[in-house]
Amino acid sequence: KVLVSHGAPRARGWELFRDKLKGEKHDINVDELSNSFLEHILFGEKASRFYTVEDDVLKKARETFTGTKKFAQFPFAELSEDIGPLPTSKPQLCFIHESDDGITLVYKSIRAVEKRETVSLAAIPVDARTAFSEYKEIIGVKQNKFRAYDAIWLPYDGSVVELRVDFPNGANADASEIAINQTLDAFKADSSSAIDEKPVNLFPIIKRIYETTDEGKVVEFALHTSTGSFKHEKMRLGDLCLREEGYHLGGKNALKGKIELFKLGVRWTVDYGEDDYTNPELFLNGSFKMLHSEDYPLETAIIRNCTGEMDYNFIRAKIDGYLKSDDAKPEAD
Question: Could you tell me the pTM of the whole model?
């Protein structure tokens, strides 16, 4: 959608898109496309945490990076390099983005996600097939490397520092935890300032968002019932909402509404006018043990499907609003 908005052709998949670029002439606005790409690096597919930091620590960090020329330009050229032969790596500062609301530090690394795939017997050499003859199914674990760009935002106003690490499809919580810790370590080394505070606990807003019935469309939840059972439901069909799904309502009514949610996924429709709309998503992946113990906070928000800064800030505003208090809820869209 972003590519098309800047004059690129429509295509299903990267290979077809590349073929169309080679075979046809297109009036692509390269400058605007580069800006959109940078916004994707800063805001696209992120696992985000929020830290309330002391004013002197934040001021010192901002002063360290303000006006730094060494990382003034994003290194687009390196994106053409084949990362297949390269080893995975820890985050390194590669770009400093100064804007009206703060300074964003971008850290690059090479990471990998593992994907389980069914292996066809035909793909195995004939001489080796007999070793697998007793198995009904063969599962292989494939490692896919990707360039990760993690961001630390230092605001000019306020005291909440934001950490966003890349969280593509297939990533898991353990991998993101490692990336978060490595990025914080890199920030400490670069700035001589440490973010030692605990992240903001996001768990309380799960219930608040769910109970605001006109707030987005619920596409996933996990809950515990008064009878001791657990339910995990997903629904990605059109514009439907799990809050209103018949099976869920029937079970909820039978329990007289006594349910406890510990996981929630919500999709919003953001209308920018002239048939231009987006569907950013927020996933709060809590666990059952978080329901009755503050010793297990929910520290990470997964923010997906943002086309740029405006979508991301839309989700961020929702989070901020629901964090304030039970009574201070933002208006639903």
Answer: 0.88
